[in-house]
């Protein structure tokens, strides 16, 4: 589903590469934690998958497509097959829960009848039934992140990318979000999650890829956050 | 593409920075109105040319008793010279029409022209007025060709082009038109920059939305079209105001003020105004569209 081969990325302004000869292979349906300290290259890794950045060397394959050969106008199609969740939720403050999720479908031209059918389904899935008319500022952090997950998942992407989705949430709320991501993963969606949260990684016992200074220093099938950390 | 989505996005965008939108509309309207006024001035010049060039003639004055012209030898034109001239002039390819005006006819015309000043008429006798050939040219601008051909012919005292009297007037109109072009060009530049800035502000104020649109895989067209149409809409509204302004200019300045004052000439009609209006819209849409397009390329990377 995702394959990085000897990928390096050096930003023009910095001497040290953000990613240095990274090779990672992620199968369909896997749940992968991407761990490492700030500046270790996690965000660059995720941005490469979305073709928001292009690698300086090496090749990136996502959903069977070589991103280097993907023409500019096909990038939107790639992004439709990838859902994204962020630490800061990124909801539209002037739209209610329903409208926020519907927005993701409207802007890719989905017809109205389909939107009004699919959005309530996905809101049920993330546990927000009955809250579709709420505005984002009326929701708790955990609920806002559920809206963001609903928006990322409403188009049924093959891959879900989560960049520190629990970074702004307290531990018990984080568990709820992780259960949700786990449930999404069980529908066959590949999940790649960058995180700093050791407790979550340890409790989930999933594959862990650790980056340090742009290099893969650990790739464990059922890993924990860090050795003895 | 869902029209309702695009339309609501445009509405949101225009309302969000209403002041910039109004500023954009006003600048576009003013620049296009001046541009239109320039076009109207051009049409005014050609309307006047059509009117006057149709009437102007070249007067070929013939020698009379005691004429001092070089071709006269101090004596009046002979019958032979006169018929020779008449024949040569009417055979000339430049000439559309020629007729002869005798001293008596010249006197009648003179009396008619100056019937308001009887003193003047009383002091003039037919003998004092020269006989002439009145020549109508096929192309009124070709005066010099005709004059050089007949200037030295025996019996011709002087050749005079009535068009020469009008030329300074046309020169003034042309200058006014030039001034209008320059002012319009400066205004249009200002409008283009302002539209660009309006679109930039709009793109910035909606960066959250466009960021999400990019993320969920909206196409470039979907992301950029609302902004582009916003700019073009400003252009269309501006052009509409400019067209109204131009119509007001024609109705008030031309029809109410100038026409009653200057009865001797032709003026631009509604037909001319209507011919200009599409250009206002074309220029308005093109300018704002191009300006928005390039702004978006720079500030709305996808």
Low-confidence stretches of chain A: none
Strands side by side in the biggest sheet of chain A: 6-7-8-3-9-10
Task: Give the CA-based shape of chain A.
Answer: globular
| Percent range for β-strand residues of chain B | 5-15%
Structural class of chain A: alpha/beta
Rg for CA atoms of chain A:
18 Å
Return the string of H and E elements of chain A. Answer: EEEHEEHEHHHEHEHEE
Provide a brief overview of the structure.
Chain A has 229 residues and is α/β, with parallel strands linked by helices. Helices cover 32% and strands 24% of the residues of chain A. In chain B, helix 7 packs antiparallel against helix 9 and helix 9 runs antiparallel to helix 10.
List keywords for this structure.
heterodimer, A: about 230 residues, alpha/beta, 6-stranded mixed sheet, 4-stranded antiparallel sheet, about 25% strand, B: about 300 residues, alpha+beta, 10 helices, 4 strands, elongated
Describe what this molecule looks like in 3D.
The complex is a heterodimer of chains A (229) and B (302). Chain A has helices at 42-49, 75-80, 97-106, 112-125, 141-153, 171-186, 198-204, and strands at 2-9, 19-26, 31-35, 57-62, 65-66, 82-86, 159-163, 190-194, 207-212, 215-220. In chain A, strand 9 and strand 10 form a beta hairpin. Chain A starts with a strand and ends in a 9-residue tail after the last strand. Chain A has a six-stranded mixed β-sheet, with helices on both faces. In chain A, strands 2-1-4-5 form a four-stranded antiparallel β-sheet, with helices on one face. In chain A, helix 3 packs across helix 4 and helix 3 (97-106) runs parallel beside helix 5 (141-153). Chain A is α/β, with parallel strands linked by helices and 229 residues long. Chain A is globular and about 50 Å long. Chain A is 32% helix and 24% strand. Chain B is built from ten helices and four strands. In chain B, strands 2-3-1-4 form a four-stranded antiparallel β-sheet. The radius of gyration of chain B is 31 Å and the shape is elongated. Chain B is α+β, with helices and mostly antiparallel strands and 302 residues long. Chain A binds chain B through residues 50, 73, 75-82, 84, 90, 92, 103-104, 106-109, 111-112, 151, 155, and chain B through 1-2, 5, 208-209, 211-220, 222-223, 302.
């Amino acid at each position: 589903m995702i394959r990085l081969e000897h990928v390096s990325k050096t930003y023009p302004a910095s001497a040290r590469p953000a990613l240095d000869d990274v090779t990672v292979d992620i199968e369909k349906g896997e749940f992968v934690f991407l761990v490492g300290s700030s500046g270790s290259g996690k965000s660059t890794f995720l941005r490469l998958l979305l073709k928001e950045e292009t690698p300086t060397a090496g090749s990136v394959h996502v959903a069977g497509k070589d991103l280097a050969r993907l023409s500019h106008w096909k990038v939107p199609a790639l992004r439709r097959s990838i859902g994204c969740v962020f630490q800061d939720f990124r909801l539209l403050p002037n739209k209610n829960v329903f409208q926020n999720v519907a927005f993701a479908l409207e802007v890719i031209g989905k017809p109205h009848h389909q939107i009004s059918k699919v959005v309530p389904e996905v809101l049920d899935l993330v546990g927000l039934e009955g809250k579709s008319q709420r505005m984002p500022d009326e929701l708790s952090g955990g609920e806002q992140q559920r809206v963001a997950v609903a928006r990322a998942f409403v188009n049924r992407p093959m891959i879900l990318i989560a960049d520190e989705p629990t970074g702004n949430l307290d531990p018990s709320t984080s568990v709820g979000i992780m259960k949700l991501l786990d449930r999404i993963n069980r529908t066959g969606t590949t999940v790649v999650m960058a995180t700093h949260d050791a407790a979550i990684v340890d409790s989930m016992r999933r594959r862990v890829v650790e980056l340090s200074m742009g290099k893969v220093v650990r790739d464990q099938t059922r890993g924990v956050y860090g050795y003895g950390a | 593409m869902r029209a309702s989505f695009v339309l609501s996005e445009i509405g949101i965008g225009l309302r969000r920075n209403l002041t910039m939108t109004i500023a954009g509309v006003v600048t576009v309207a003013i620049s296009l109105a001046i541009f239109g006024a320039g076009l109207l001035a051009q049409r005014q010049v050609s309307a006047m040319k059509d009117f006057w060039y149709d009437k102007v003639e070249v007067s070929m004055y013939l020698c009379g008793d005691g004429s001092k012209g070089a071709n006269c030898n101090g004596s009046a034109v002979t019958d032979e010279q006169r018929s020779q001239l008449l024949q040569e002039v009417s055979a000339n390819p430049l000439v559309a029409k020629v007729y002869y005006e005798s001293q008596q006819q010249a006197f009648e015309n003179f009396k008619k022209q100056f019937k308001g000043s009887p003193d003047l008429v009383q002091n003039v006798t037919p003998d004092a007025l020269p006989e002439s050939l009145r020549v109508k040219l096929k192309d009124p601008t070709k005066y010099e060709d005709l004059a050089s051909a007949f200037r030295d012919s025996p019996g011709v005292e002087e050749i005079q082009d009535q068009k020469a009297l009008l030329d300074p007037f046309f020169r003034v109109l042309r200058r006014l038109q030039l001034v209008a072009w320059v002012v319009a060009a400066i205004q249009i530049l200002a409008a283009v920059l302002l539209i660009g800035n309006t679109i930039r502000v709009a793109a910035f104020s909606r960066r959250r939305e466009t960021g999400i649109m990019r993320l969920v895989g909206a196409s470039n067209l979907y992301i950029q079209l609302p902004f582009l149409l916003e700019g073009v809409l400003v252009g269309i509204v501006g052009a509409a105001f400019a067209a109204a302004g131009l119509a007001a200019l024609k109705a008030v300045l031309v029809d109410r003020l100038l026409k009653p004052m200057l009865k001797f000439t032709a003026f631009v009609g509604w037909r001319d105004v209507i011919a200009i209006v599409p250009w206002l819209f074309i220029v308005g849409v093109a300018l704002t569209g191009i300006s928005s397009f390039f702004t978006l390329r720079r500030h709305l990377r996808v």
